[in-house]
Write a structure and sequence with these properties.
five-stranded parallel sheet; Rossmann fold; about 200 residues; homodimer; 8 helices
Chain lengths: ~200, ~200
């Protein structure tokens, strides 16, 4: 059996990342890696589902033990992806999606050259603005901060392997599965088959 | 408008390359590049359709002029792919498929780093043998020569970008189009879109 693929999945806010991941996770070949954090659970959040909620002391000990694929501090809290969250699934042949922001992604680029990097981009910033306004949960000031943040994040898009524009959700999800299928027939992943054919010539 | 993609397409004999290309060419976004050769036309072959039939003198002059993407001598005849056969289509946004053998392909690797390399592999050598026997046009000796040739060519498969196994024709053709679609969203090909989004933030 082939090992699964580690997939780093990043998107600026307003790019429909959550909805896309919801669709992708309907496919049983995929698992979403649950991040660890030192921040307190919000009402309704479940330990081990939304996040692994751990103390700062434990988080720092695990950093020292090399248990994180990546980690970052954000608004005074630590967030990170645990190696043991992904590897057992990969061994079972399942693909593991890490939903992380650009800086965390770049840490993984160095540690895991076998990972696949997918960036979700908006059709335009005007569209992001429209989506965030429609949500109605943020003030105009916060929306402009999100736009500035998104612009910064887009500057990292070229460091990913693939850039999928989420204009229509269905097309974006289809593009994601297309990329996964194409990656399966990239030459390095086909070497076992070729060796087998030559051996039994 | 985006430029088309130059696609180098190679397969050992018995891998169903001709049938696959027939299916691919039903899609109007693709053109098959016609090779030039110094060999004589066989009955039924049409100049400019099957090959561009030219004299050895003209072929050699065109090599000197740098008009070939690749060329090779085979059984005393020259074969090659002309630059001006592909480039006008690429400029029009059409994808051009070059059906060539492994050594010619490797010449293009150096000259055109933008080209996409697709290798078609058999499910097994036993299957190639079965297909060639079924055709009934070759002697057992010639079939074994073909098998030896195919084994040599498989040794180059890892130098291609993608390896598609042609077990069931429909699946292999679908894989080809999957690869083409995925390649369109590879990061370098999406840079114009990202720049546009950032510029109009």
């Amino acid at each position: 059996m082939n090992k699964g693929r580690l997939i780093v999945f990043s998107a600026p806010s307003g790019c429909g990342k959550g909805t896309m991941l919801g669709e992708i996770m309907k496919d049983e070949r995929f698992r979403l890696s649950v991040s660890a954090t030192t921040r307190d659970p919000r009402p309704g959040e479940i330990d081990g589902v939304n996040y692994h909620f751990i103390t700062r002391e434990e988080f720092e000990k695990r950093i020292e033990n090399g248990e994180f694929l990546e980690h970052a501090e954000y608004c005074g809290n630590l967030y990170g992806s645990l190696v043991n969250e992904a590897d057992p699934y990969l061994e079972q042949g399942l693909n593991v999606v890490l939903e992380i922001e650009v800086q965390g992604a770049m840490q993984i680029r160095e540690k895991r050259p076998d990972a696949l990097f997918v960036f979700i981009a908006p059709p335009s910033m005007a569209e992001i603005r429209r989506r965030l306004l429609k949500r109605g949960t943020e003030t105009p000031e916060v929306i402009e901060q999100r736009i500035a943040q998104a612009t910064m994040e887009l500057g990292y898009a070229q460091d990913y392997d693939y850039i999928i524009v989420n204009d229509a959700l269905e097309d974006a999800v289809a593009d994601f599965f297309t990329v996964i299928r194409a990656e399966q027939v990239r030459a390095p992943f086909m070497s076992d088959h070729i060796e087998e054919v030559i051996k039994n010539a």
